[in-house]
Amino acid sequence: MDLHIINCGFFKLDGGAMFGVVPKSLWQRTNPADENNLCTWATRCLLIEDGNRLILIDNGIGNKQDAKFFSHYYLHGNDSLHGSLKKAGFDPSDVTDMFLTHLHFDHCGGGVEYKNRDNKEPRLVFPEARYWSNREHWQWATAPNAREKASFLKENLLPMQESGHLHFADPEEDSPFPGIELLYVNGHTEKQMLPKFTYKGRTVVYMADLLPSTGHIPLPYVMGYDTRPLLTLEEKERILKQAADEHWVLFLEHDPVNECCTVKHTEKGVRLDSTFSLSDL
Fold it and tell me: In whole angstroms, how far apart are CA 103 and each of 24, 90, 221, 280?
């Protein structure tokens, strides 16, 4: 197995929304905000090269939304989905499996594009790939609650289904990816999936939005976006304790600086142990 980081650029979100009830005087120590109270976040995806399968986990925001949409999120940086794939030596047509941890726009928007600016006919960015979600989350996303409706965009979702490329993992069955276990968590959104696998003798977990950054490690640091924050607390506690016990490597999708981290037990609970690049493993 080989791993490649696919950086899709940076965007900004309100710091208060990202840290929920935690005061700014605390969260700004790890994630400083600009004059508009916005913090910078990465869209850091992961490409797994394993035998005949090339599995991309999440794909960023994409570029098909209008100027008004992007004005809210301040996309910036030199990295892009296509550029990072090319840098890793691959073409979008090489991807066999497009795995989506969940269907919020910053995780799945890059999987569908328009043919050109004038022709808004959608097409899949990864024409040979199976696009993976799960049935419960798909139903949640396509008939969204009012709280999450702005994060589930039909132009990101329906082309996957209409193309015939949509497939569902089943929580009651084995993972469709040999060697990759799927952890299901429900606090952020219904049936978010976290891939867990062994790489160079280490257990790696792709943390998606259960742990957006190292700044979110303390248990009360839960996003205001989460639909069930008390459940997020329970899920974070369980997974972070096991990560500390077993020295897991936690891959961070949104941390603007750190690609990976480990955690440890302390008198104050589980806390950050170390940060490092994936290439350091």
Answer: 28, 24, 22, 30
